[in-house]
Design brief:
Elements lengths: L1 E4 L2 E9 L2 E5 L11 E3 L7 E4 L5 H5 L2 E3 L1
Antiparallel strand pairs: 1-2, 1-6, 2-3, 3-5, 4-5
Length: 64
Amino acid sequence: MNAIYKNELLRYIPDFHGKEVMWITDPSQINMEHMTFVGGYPDEYCIFIDDLSDDEKKEIKLIM
């Protein structure tokens, strides 16, 4: 499933080690606020939804 957040297309993962995340779809997204490096490969970045404020969470639009 995908998500639009801050006008960026991200991949929504409902269970990444027990946490909801939005994963990058483009390397340029690694500089987004709240983006966290989570792996060993250069493209393993995601935003943990728990790190967002309630207002920021309202900006997430899930799409299929």
